[in-house]
Amino acid sequence: MSRLLVKVFLTLSFSTLFISNSFPSSGKNWKKVNEESDIEVFLKPSSNKTLDIMKGVGIVDGSPEKIAFILLDSTQKKNWDGLQKEKVLEQKSHVNKVFYQAYEVPFPFSNRDIVFRITCEKIKDGYLIKYNSEKHSKAPKTIGERATIHANYFLKRIKGGKTLASVEVIFDLKGDVPSFISNIISRKWPISVIKHVRRKIKQSWV
User: Fold this and answer.
1) Which of 113, 140, 148 is nearest to 18 (CA)?
2) pTM summary value
């Protein structure tokens, strides 16, 4: 999760309950809703009509392999996500891990944590990285409310040593947070991720 979450909680203070949702990996009916820093953002409603699925598309000056390395490297997440705590609950391989993450949010909302699996698979001309929330036997008791995330990162190799990055995401912050706040997080997440990758790929550790 990102610092964006904290910023949203600081400015919005409403409460309601809403339904959890699964993430469809394909489909049409995308509507363009924003463009920032040469990143196009699209929206389509989810199956429960409450939460939105967001997609951001932008070009990164680097290979799919380097971008996948950034997204899969857990040692960097605290540095750029602003998380309070992170733990690997399971690691089948470097490209198949389950993470627990916890973070504080401002009053009057409850703190949030999340359990999700990261996987990476080879696809034509690149890679597909998935973040999918799941229940796990080694997950600690929630510190407040357990949020969920379902995200797909499509990394397609294009000319000039560059990558066409497409990020699809749906958040559910659960509990006392209304769905429109989850949608704000979802709307800004693809832009935040692609900008982050653009910055990180220039650094020496990649």
Assistant:
1) 148
2) 0.80
Has residue 152 got a pLDDT over 50?
yes
Side-chain-side CA neighbours of residue 7 (13 Å): 10
Where do we find the tokens 């692609």?
A: 194
- Which SS3 state, helix, strand or coil, does residue 91 take? strand
Nearest to 65 by CA among 91, 37, 94, 43: 94
Phi and psi at 62, nearest 5°, equal: 175, 170
Summarize pLDDT for 112-139 with one digit per residue, the tens.
899 999 999 999 999 999 999 999 999 9
Separation in Å, CA 151 to CA 56, 109, 131, 144, 159: 11, 24, 5, 23, 26
Phi, psi (deg, nearest 5) at residue 197:
-65, -40
Task: Write out pLDDT tens, residues 26-73.
Answer: 457 899 999 999 999 999 988 877 888 999 999 999 999 999 999 887
Q: In one letter, which amino acid is 86?
A: E
> How far apart are the C-alpha atoms of 182 and 188, rounded to whole Å?
10
